Amino acid sequence: TSYGFREVREGEKQALVNDVFHKVAKRYDIMNDVMSAGLHRAWKDAMIASLNPRKDPSYRTLDVAGGTGDIAFRIIEASDRLAHSTVLDINGSMLAVGADRAAKKGLSANLDFVEANAEDLPFEAGSFDAYTIAFGIRNVPRIDVALSEAYRVLKRGGRLLVLEFSEVEMPLLDRFYDAWSFNAIPQFGKMITGDAEPYQYLVESIRKFPNQEDFAAMIRAAGFSRVAYTNYTGGIAALHSGWKL
Ligand code: SAM
Fold first, then answer.
1. Average of pLDDT values for 29-37?
2. Which amino acids bring their CB within 6 angstroms of ligand 1?
C-alpha cells in the first residue's frame, strides 16, 4: 500500500529521525500524551514493573533512545532512588530536556546522559544489569546491530526489555488505530509543530516494524535466551524480554 510517502533509504533514515526529534524535543512530552491519549504512561509503568529493578546502588541500567528520561526516571523511583541509570540518545536536544527534568525531580545524582548511537555503544562489554529501550528501536536503521550491542554491554544474567509499537491483534481496535494514526497523529503534529511530514514518517515506521513473533526471532538471533513478549492494549504496543545467560 502506498500512503503517498517516498521510500526512505537506510542512510537517509537516521538523518530524518534526528530532524524529527530536534524539532519536537521541547514539546515531546506533551505530544506523547496527546498522541497516545496518555496510554504511554501505563505501558511504561508496566515495563518497569516487569523489570522490577533492584534496590541497590550497584544496580546499573542503560536506557537507550532514552530521550527525555521517562524510563530512566521510573527505574530510579522504583529502586527507591538507589539504582543508577545511563540515559543514552543520539539526539542532544532530547537529552537536554531530559537533564532539565531530572534536575527538577532531584534525580540528577542517579543519572548520567550520554549522546551516542544505539548501533555503536561507548561502553565495555558486560557493563549493565539491564538494557531498556522504549519506542526507540524502530527508529534505529540497523536493528540487528543495535540488538548485538545490547547483548554485548549486558552482564551475564542481564535483562533486555524492549517496548515498542506492534501489531494490533484485535479486529475493531485495528481499524480505529489505523484511522487514528494515519489521520489524527500527523494532524496533531502539524498543529503543535507546524509540520505534518515528520509524523507521517513516524507512523509509517510503525507499520514497517516487524510484528511480535518476527521481532522475538530477531532478539533470539542476537543471542538472547528465554525471549518472550506481552501485548499491551491489544497489541498497539508490546514488551519484549530476553536474558543474556
Ligand atoms: N524512550 C523515550 C520515551 O519512551 O519517551 C523516547 C522515545 S522517542 C519516540 C525515540 C528516541 O530515539 C528519540 O529521542 C531519538 O533521538 C532516539 N534515537 C533515534 N535513533 C537513535 C539511535 N540510532 N541511537 C540512539 N537513539 C536514537
1. 86
2. 14, 17, 21, 64-67, 70-71, 89-91, 94, 117-119, 134-136, 139-140
- 128 domain-assigned: yes
Please indicate, yes or no, if residue 70 is contained in any of the structural domains: yes
Dihedral, 148, 45, 216, 61 alpha carbons, nearest 10: 20
Residue 152, in any domain of the structure? yes
Helix axes 197-208, 10-24, angle to 10 degrees: 130
Nearest CA to ligand 1 atom 5: 70
- Mean of the per-residue pLDDT values of the chain: 91
Residues in Cβ contact with 180 at an 8 Å cutoff, skipping those fewer than 6 apart:
none
Specify the residue with its C-alpha closest to ligand 1, atom 18: 65
- Taking the CA of residue 94 as reference, the ligand 1 atom at the shortest distance is 14
Q: What is the structure's pLDDT at 183?
A: 81
Average pLDDT over residues 179-196: 80
Q: What is the pLDDT of residue 10?
A: 67
182 falls in which pLDDT band (50, 70, 90)? confident
Residue 201 within any structural domain of the chain: no
ipTM above 0.90, yes or no: yes
If one residue of 23, 34, 39, 90 were mutated to test the ligand 1 pocket, choosing by the most ligand atoms within 8 A of its CB, it would be 90
Whole-number Å distance, alpha carbon 60 to ligand 1 midpoint, is 20
Domain count of the chain?
1
Question: Cell 513478549 sits at which residue?
Answer: 229
**8-21 burial, b if ≥16 CB within 10 A, otherwise e?**
beeeebbebbbebb
